[in-house]
Design brief:
Number of helices of chain A: 8
Low-confidence stretches of chain A: none
Number of strands of chain A: 6
Strand order of the largest sheet of chain A: 4-3-5-6
Helix content of chain A: 40-55%
Order of helices and strands of chain A: HHHEEHEHEHEHEH
Largest sheet of chain A: 4 strands, parallel
Distance between the termini of chain A: 64 Å
Shape of chain A: globular
Radius of gyration of chain A: 22 Å
Oligomer: homodimer
Structural class of chain A: alpha/beta
Largest interface: A-B, 56 and 56 residues
Chain lengths: 203, 203
């Protein structure tokens, strides 16, 4: 692409470095920002800089937050008895969006992945075990991806709880075919496992 | 979407306001910028602000430029005899990318569109007529969209040149079916016109 302006070129290249944005889209976005009032463009750039400079990790659960303790951990109306364990903040947000969970969270910051060199010490598992020992904690819901890494992580946490004699219920989120999905389009592994893990019909 | 952080929320909303970016993509981009080194994110935001604050319009042709005269107008190797007239800078860049044109440009800043209230005075037509009077100018290539507005604009410019007795050749870029395109997928208007505007076969 021929740029008559290095200023535009720098912006297009910065946009094109973002995931899912190609050169053509990047150019379109750069021109859009040129056509906006200067104030709007400044606000856009400032929002990004403020976010990057000001974002914090919740001291309790590992959620991203504007303060040292996140809004969910601070909220007295949330149930402290149940902790939902997730890989990352995106999973937490996806669960929050369902509005089906009113407990607390714990963000692991990843999954145990020996091949990629991610061990338990790289995650917030020690913090989770600490939280599990607190008297109000009754249940850990493992809301991790149904992959080998996810299963390994669940196995490891469960083993640690047993070894330390920490008495909490550990549960997995239900796995099976998607609600509303056409059975013929479900992937084979999910479909096969959903037959093995069938549940009694409550008529 | 539930945001535990206003900083993230502001950035997601700023991204989602850009064309072609939905809420899910905006969230993905915000998290990407959080995961990058702070320096990379700062550079991204600064590139945008620098571009918006520093961009200029070339005094000669109307191209976007970092300086008062753009690189194309400054380049002594470009042919001053031919001026390619385009609607906007994006069209100029698309033509530059083809590497088939080595003349100069003139950016109109739009097309005459009476219904939308865009008249000749809103465009850089007066500047174009001025450039056309310069002795080195021999040809204006009208590289405008093949629409009613495009045709109106070409008609108007041509009329002005005649009325002022400015003696330059005016040409249109070729219109017809796309090279390499399947004829059956060409739109009806283009296909119809390409038959009317057929050219002799040079065997």
């Amino acid at each position: 692409m021929n740029f008559s302006s290095n200023l535009i070129k720098d912006t297009v290249e910065a946009f094109a470095a973002l995931p899912g944005i190609g050169r053509k889209s990047a150019l379109r976005l750069a021109f859009h920002l040129l056509e906006q009032p200067e104030e709007t463009t400044t606000e856009f750039a400032e929002a990004i800089q403020k976010m990057r400079a000001g974002i914090k990790t919740c001291n309790t659960c590992g959620n991203l937050s504007d303060e040292d303790i996140c809004g969910i951990c601070k909220d007295p109306s949330r149930d402290s008895k149940v902790i939902c364990v997730v890989e990352g903040v995106r999973d937490l947000m996806a669960i929050e969006d369902t509005q089906h969970f009113r407990g607390r969270y714990h963000v692991l910051g990843g999954l145990i992945a020996p091949i990629e060199g991610v061990g338990p010490a790289d995650l917030t598992i020690a913090d989770l075990l600490q939280r599990a020992t607190q008297p109000e904690t009754q249940e850990l819901i493992m809301a991790l991806s149904p992959t080998i890494d996810g299963d390994t992580t669940i196995f490891y946490i469960n083993k640690q709880l047993h070894e330390r004699g920490i008495d909490v219920t550990v549960s997995n989120i239900a796995r099976g075919v998607s609600f509303g999905g056409e059975l013929e389009y479900a992937d084979g592994v999910t479909l096969g496992r959903s037959i093995l893990a069938r549940t009694p019909y409550k008529g």
